[in-house]
């Protein structure tokens, strides 16, 4: 076998390989000899089929299998000997002319092909013991607990009917009947009876609730709205519509007494138990926010300390995924690049930078995990599947079966678990310093802090 490296440019490598016909023929004969003791043919006793007859029957298919196997094993040998870590699947270029292919399979010509790959560059890992990481920590105050419970109370408060002739205000609930039309024609799903609409809840089409301000029971109004471009129904998305709307009842919200009875209505023994539950939930939420901030800072530090050229194909693949998502989002929202105070070219440049960062960080995390034998266990994957199933009550078996039969979905579960384990490994080595912060600072966006 001869191997010539014909290209070594950046992260691109290309090799030209030649395998002698005699080597291929020897392997084909060995496979046919093995087949001889297994195949059953009419007129021949097991193991007594003449080699020539077997070759006539199976020679071409066995030769094709042998060539495939030779290419795989040869490529593996080449990459292993040169210590190349592949970023992409090898691109193999074989002879295409029918006579050339036939000569190779019949043992009359050497196998000659080229293999092109893109490789991962060597990554020199930083000394993680030199990392200094600030860990923002916020305490849950009694005021935070009270505020949390009040939000629950507001979401569960009752309404009482207003006096005759009263006008609807923001926050009131209006019981309405409506008939919707587009260009004067009624459309499916455009009518409703005894529908409660809370003004300011933003649960109806934009503009619908606002136009109910000042309406009284028994009054009829024509509300003019436009369906959002990302509306669930394609036939209605972006269309202007009119709703002839009649109010039958105006109700105002009643403040909910936050006491033991309220706690019992939520399935808890007392107000104290409700406060305990609220505090536990907030502690978990604050811890999650702290974790995200620490992880973000750590990834920034990894980005700063690991500068290398990322494989262009991986960056391009990541960019395309991101850009397709951006285009779909903009199309559904009806926004343009001008609305975002940028241009398509500038946005593409920015997202290519983000794609490059993501690929480099992914390679760095993978290198850290590989060198320190960090892996995700089957038990950890199973727990992740169980958690996902629990989040969809009534569909647990469906979720479990989906992941069990979908390796790609399992891989998507594995990736964040692996990333978190690598992050934890680095944090064990780094110097982590806690810093007390307010709840507002804990949740403040990094861009806001920099402004």
From TrEMBL:
Family: Belongs to the FKBP-type PPIase family. Tig subfamily.
Protein name in the entry: Trigger factor
Entries under InterPro entries matching the protein: PPIase_dom_sf, PPIase_FKBP_dom, Trig_fac, Trigger_fac_C, Trigger_fac_C_sf, Trigger_fac_ribosome-bd_bac, Trigger_fac_ribosome-bd_sf, Trigger_fact/SurA_dom_sf
Locations listed in the record: Cytoplasm
Residue stretches making up the PPIase FKBP-type domain: 171-251
GO molecular function: peptidyl-prolyl cis-trans isomerase activity
Source taxon at top rank: Bacteria
EC annotation from Swiss-Prot or TrEMBL: 5.2.1.8
Keywords assigned: Cell cycle, Cell division, Chaperone, Cytoplasm, Isomerase, Rotamase
Name of the top EC class for this enzyme: isomerase
One Pfam family this sequence matches: FKBP_C
Function: Involved in protein export. Acts as a chaperone by maintaining the newly synthesized protein in an open conformation. Functions as a peptidyl-prolyl cis-trans isomerase.
NCBIfam families per the UniProt record, alphabetical: tig
Organism expressing this protein natively: Tardiphaga alba
Listed PROSITE patterns: FKBP_PPIASE
Main location, first listed in the record: cytoplasm
Domain notes: Consists of 3 domains; the N-terminus binds the ribosome, the middle domain has PPIase activity, while the C-terminus has intrinsic chaperone activity on its own.
Catalytic activity: [protein]-peptidylproline (omega=180) = [protein]-peptidylproline (omega=0)
Annotated Gene3D superfamilies: 3.10.50.40, Trigger factor ribosome-binding domain, Trigger factor, C-terminal domain
């Amino acid at each position: 076998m001869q191997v010539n490296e014909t290209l070594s440019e950046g992260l691109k490598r290309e090799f030209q390989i030649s395998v002698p016909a005699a080597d291929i023929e020897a392997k084909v004969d060995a496979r046919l000899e093995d087949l001889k003791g297994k195949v059953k043919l009419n007129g021949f006793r097991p193991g007594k089929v003449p080699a020539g007859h077997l070759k006539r029957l199976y020679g071409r298919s066995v030769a094709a299998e042998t060539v495939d196997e030779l290419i795989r094993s040869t490529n593996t040998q080449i990459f292993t000997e040169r210590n190349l870590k592949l970023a992409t699947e090898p691109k193999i270029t074989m002879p295409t002319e029918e006579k050339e292919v036939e000569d190779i399979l019949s043992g009359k010509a050497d196998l000659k092909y080229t293999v092109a790959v893109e490789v991962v560059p060597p990554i020199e890992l930083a000394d993680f013991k030199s990392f200094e990481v600030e860990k923002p920590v916020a305490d849950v105050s009694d005021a935070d607990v009270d505020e949390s419970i009040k939000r629950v109370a507001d979401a569960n408060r009752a309404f009482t009917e207003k006096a005759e002739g009263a006008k609807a205000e923001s926050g009131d609930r209006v019981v309405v009947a409506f008939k919707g039309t587009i260009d004067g024609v009624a459309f499916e799903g455009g009518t409703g009876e005894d529908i409660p609409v809370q003004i300011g809840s933003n649960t109806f089409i934009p503009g619908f609730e606002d136009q109910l301000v000042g309406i009284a029971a028994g009054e009829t109004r024509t509300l003019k709205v436009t369906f959002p471009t990302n509306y669930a129904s394609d036939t209605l998305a972006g269309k202007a519509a009119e709703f002839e709307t009649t109010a039958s009842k105006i109700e105002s919200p009643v403040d909910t007494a936050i006491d033991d009875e309220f706690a019992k209505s939520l399935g808890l023994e007392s107000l104290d138990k409700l406060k305990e539950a609220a505090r536990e939930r907030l502690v978990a939420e604050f811890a999650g926010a702290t974790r995200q901030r620490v992880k973000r800072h750590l990834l920034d530090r990894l980005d700063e300390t690991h500068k290398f050229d990322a494989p262009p194909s991986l960056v391009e693949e990541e960019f395309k995924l991101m850009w397709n998502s951006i285009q779909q989002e903009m199309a559904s929202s009806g926004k343009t690049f001008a609305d975002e105070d940028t241009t398509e070219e500038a946005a593409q440049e920015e997202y290519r930078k983000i794609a490059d960062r993501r690929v480099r960080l992914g390679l760095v995390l993978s290198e850290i995990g590989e060198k320190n034998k960090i892996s995700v266990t089957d038990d950890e994957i199973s727990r992740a599947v169980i958690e996902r199933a629990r989040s969809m009550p009534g569909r647990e078996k469906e979720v479990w079966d989906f992941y069990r039969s979908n390796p790609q979905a399992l891989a998507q579960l594995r990736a964040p678990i692996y990333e978190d384990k690598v992050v934890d490994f680095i944090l064990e080595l780094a110097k982590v310093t806690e810093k007390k912060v307010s709840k507002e600072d804990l949740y403040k966006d990094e861009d806001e802090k920099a402004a």
